[in-house]
Amino acid sequence: MSAVLTVENLVKTYPGFRLGPVSFTVEAGSIMGFIGRNGAGKSTTLKSILNLVHPDGGSIRYFGQALSGNERAIKQRVGFAGGAVDYYPRKPIAEIIDVTRRFYENWDDGAWEKYAAAFSIDPRKTPRELSEGMKVKLNLTIALSHRAELLILDEPTSGLDPVSREELLEIFLALKEKGAAILFSTHITSDLDKCADHITYIKKGELVASESMEAFLSRHRKSGEGRDLEEIMLRYEKEDFREKFAD
Amino acid sequence: MKNLLIKETRLSAHLLSYLFLAFSLMALIPGYPILVGAFFVCFGLFQTFQNGRETNDVLYSALLPIDKKDVVKARYIFVCLIQAAAFVLTAALTVLRMVFLGNAAPYVNNPMMNSNPVFLAWTLLIFTLFNVLFVGPFYKTAYKFAKPFIAFIAASLLSVFAAELFHHLPGLAFLNTSERLPVQFALLLFALVIYGSGTVLSCRAAQRNFERLDL
Asked: What is the pTM of this model?
């Protein structure tokens, strides 16, 4: 499989927090789960690879091209959804779509209508009238309508009820079958159990692992560090608060 | 850029940015510091910046397949289009007041500023202050606008005060009349150059700041 996104030695430093070096590769037709606790640096990593924040070091390549200097062309092929972030919450969805579609060379009105109908999105509504799950679906629909080959999703399942989460994971699997690559961050390990092919795990800004889900689980099972993602993550992350609060 | 301007007018702009163009009509009010009309036009534009912050406009724009610096350029063009509309309307009313209402008693005995080319020059100066003191510094964060807006308010109110003061100074009474029009038009041309160069330089600095910004 070909690499759609390659991140090498990404570093970003803030006062009191250092991310990286982080390296991973997302392949076409695969789902990568990007996991870590709240504040581990997941959003900073995703924002860095979207050029929303400026890394202090490292390289980011999409479809074999460096992000720097090719941002316009690359963003035509990439879709981003920041969970339930709603843009223009009081504007009718139809108007937001009519403006958004103008920016994408590969915008497909048929795809928009198909996915909007499949997700029961009413274009007459405004984003503020949608539930959290519907907002995620709206962002996904926009990404799918310009035929994004890579979907980058920042905690898309956070705040969703179990049924909506299950639906969303099924959508991810269906998109993967169609050849799309998905990189999604989450701190909910059960999401990854259901659909991830690869996992990239960061802890306090540092890369713990980036490998196939199978290899990651197998390695930790052999060493007795946990049978599933949740156990492994708890082993890495759990702090002894009784010791911390001891007199 | 055309698509970004469509986005500016249909998604980003606040309705008040358009409605406050009506404050250009202040050019007809006698006995009033009519230059505050230009301030209110800018106050209407401020609503678009405030609205943009509340609707995640900057993030939406930065994720589009465009050059980031064009986000800033499109906003400057939108601001300039509103200011140009206000200026054209104000200029038309100024011509009306000078040509057809020049001898009307309320304007002849007006102790405050009259509409004339110098008034139009002051209008352009207020617009320049907005672009240089508010719009440019806003893009240092694309989020915080209190300090830049207070700076603009202070500078524009000082300008209104200065504009009302100057024509009372010895030898400068012509600034409030229809006399010495060549001098007045020279001042207007000078203000136009200041507006154009100030806006372009401010836009370039804002683009550089926005490119460096972590969103």
From this structure: 0.88
